[in-house]
Structures are given as C-alpha cells and as structure tokens.
Recover the amino acids of this structure.
C-alpha cells in the first residue's frame, strides 16, 4: 500500500506535501502525491494548467491518471518543474488534469486510490487559501485548491485536509486563519525538512521555502515577490493543522460552487461569480504583456558589479524592515539571469556565509 496525498494548489504545494508526509508517516513510507502542473508564468509561459498531452514520458497509472517521472518532459512551449521534482522527492508524482472539472479530477483521484491500494486521501495546502471564502482582498489563486476539495467531495474516499504554515502564501492572513484552524496537529521541525532540502537550490517556490525556514526556527519579517506586504514568520508558522473535508467545504464557497463541474471553463466561470476574478484570465493577460515586452533588462547604470547592485538593493530593502528574503525575490528584483543568480549566490556564500539562512537569505541591518 502507498499513502495517497493531494497537493491542493499546484506549484510548490507538492514540496510541502512531501514534507507533511515525511512528518506524519516517515520519509521512507511509500507515497503518491497528486499535483497540478500549474506553475505560473515564471516557469511555464503558457497560461493555465498543463494536461498529460503537454508532457512526454509519463507513465499510465489508470485510464486517465499519469505519473510524472524524471524521464518526463514538457512539450515546448510549455514548461514544468515536475520532472525535476520527481527526481528530488522520494514520493511518486501523479499529474492532476483539471480540464475535466471536479468530476474529471474525482475520477483521477479514484484511480490513484486504486493504484495505491488505499481508500483515503490527505489533501495538503501551504498557506491556507484552501479555506478561503472568496472575498479576501489578497486572494490570488483559489481555483486549484477549490477544485481539489470539490473533487474529493465527489470521490468515494475518506478525506482529511491539512493546512501547513498559515498565511505563508500571502493570500489569507495568518490572523484570519488561526480562528478557523483550531489546535495544531503538530509543529514541523528541522528534522522534517531534510526530505526536501535539496529542492530549494533550484525551485522558485516561496511559500514552501518560508515553511522550511519556520520549521528550522527562523522568525522575523520576510520579503517575497508579488505580494502587497511582507510575511512575518511567527511561532504559528511551522504548524500543521488537520480539518475534516466537510469543514473545509463549509468554509470554501468556491469549492461548493464547483460541485458537478465537468470542464475547466465552467470552473473558471464559477470563480468569476464567487471571487470576482479568474486567475487563468489574469495569466492570459500577463502572458500577452510579456510577449509584447521583448526588450532586455537595462544595463545597470555606471557599470556597477553584481555585488554592488546587491548591496544597494539590500540597503533599500532592509530599510523597509525586512530581515529575510527569498532567492526568487532577489533574482526578480535585480532582473538576474540564472547564471547571474548562481554567481551572486557563490559570492554571498564566500564573502558572508552567515547571510545564508537556508532556504532564505538574511539581510544585514541598516541605519534608518
């Protein structure tokens, strides 16, 4: 028998799901993690989630379910980090295809349960937007999580819903989530992070990186990219919570609206009605803008070196009260290419290794 887990939101949720599995059942317990290939434009230039036909080298695990392996690859122009994740995580990865709506996803989850020889699925979400009611002003990506809940409600399996790191994805604030979550199931520890520690040398997930940092004891204000406010790591940040599926559905208005949907277009219409926006439409708009802007980033004025550019950026960022930053924020705000990111990482590790609070970077305090 294999444990069956479902990474609710796609992207980096598979990383948190692997860590949750290791914490609850041990890193060597066989498991299958179901996840979307929905990795946003930083990884995949094609808007929306990918489906099995967007990959080569997947392995059938049922009539509609496919496993992603290290030998799988996205078909250009699509992009995906799932094959590389499959190489670095101990659990198998199964590809969720949401184009059949909640009903199609329920079929895939049921096939996965038969493949694993189990009648139970653990849903895992980092941050807590799986419990969003749709009205939160900072909500950005509710559809994948809500579809996961709606599909589990349709599947003939018992289901537990887990939230790790409340508020760490900058979508629903920690203060709003804690009254809904009850007592934590347990706090994740540094030992629980070993199963995923290699991933952050290359994966851009920020919420999972913050969870790992919190589990390793880091506390303080952390700057992430594309969020209106920084995230503060608190004593609640490494906590893992468990809810019943009924309770999660009670809280998630969009998940209830998705019941019975049989295609992604209907799911997108439900998101527009409940939340007032479609994240897929937003991705289409961003992709169109990216295609129109083909200019290269401007060269730094005065020929500043990479360490000098980082030092200037660090001073201005630290003045805003931010103590830690993610690798992704550094790379995006300094417009670094992958080789430049690697060069800056090597420089910082050599010049000031105390800056590295893996998987985050500690900023030097500055006078305000």
């Amino acid at each position: 028998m294999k444990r069956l887990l479902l990474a609710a939101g796609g992207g980096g949720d598979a990383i948190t799901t692997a860590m949750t599995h290791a914490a609850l059942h041990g890193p060597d317990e066989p498991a299958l993690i179901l996840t979307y290939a929905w990795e946003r434009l930083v990884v995949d230039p094609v808007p929306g989630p990918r489906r099995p036909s967007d990959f080569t080298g997947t392995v059938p695990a049922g009539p509609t379910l496919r496993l992603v392996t290290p030998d799988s690859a996205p078909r250009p122009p699509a992009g995906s980090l799932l094959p590389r994740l499959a190489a670095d995580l101990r659990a198998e990865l199964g590809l969720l295809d949401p184009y059949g709506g909640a009903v199609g996803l329920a079929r895939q989850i049921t096939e996965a349960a038969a493949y694993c020889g189990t009648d139970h699925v653990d849903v895992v979400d980092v941050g807590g937007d799986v419990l969003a009611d749709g009205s939160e002003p900072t909500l950005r990506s509710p559809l994948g999580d809500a579809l996961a809940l709606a599909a589990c409600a349709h599947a003939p399996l018992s289901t537990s819903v887990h939230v790790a790191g409340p508020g760490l994805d900058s979508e629903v604030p920690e203060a709003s989530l804690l009254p809904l979550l009850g007592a934590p199931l347990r706090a994740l520890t540094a030992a629980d992070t070993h199963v995923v520690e290699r991933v952050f040398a290359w994966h851009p997930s920020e919420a999972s990186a913050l969870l790992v940092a919190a589990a390793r004891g880091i506390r303080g204000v952390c700057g992430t990219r594309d969020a209106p406010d920084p995230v503060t790591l608190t004593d609640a940040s490494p906590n893992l919570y468990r809810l019943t599926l009924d309770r999660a559905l009670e809280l998630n208005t969009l998940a209830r609206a998705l019941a019975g949907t049989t295609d992604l277009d209907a799911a997108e219409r439900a998101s527009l009605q409940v939340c007032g926006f479609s994240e897929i439409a937003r991705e289409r708009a961003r992709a169109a803008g990216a295609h129109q802007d083909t200019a290269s980033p401007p060269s730094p004025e005065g020929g500043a070196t990479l360490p000098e550019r980082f030092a200037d950026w660090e001073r201005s960022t630290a003045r805003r009260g931010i103590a830690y930053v993610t690798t992704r924020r550094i790379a995006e705000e300094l417009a670094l290419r992958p080789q430049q990111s690697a060069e800056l990482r090597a420089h910082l590790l050599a010049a000031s290794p105390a800056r590295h609070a893996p998987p985050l970077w500690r900023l030097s305090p500055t006078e305000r």
Remarks:
- DSSP finds 14 helices and 16 strands in the chain.
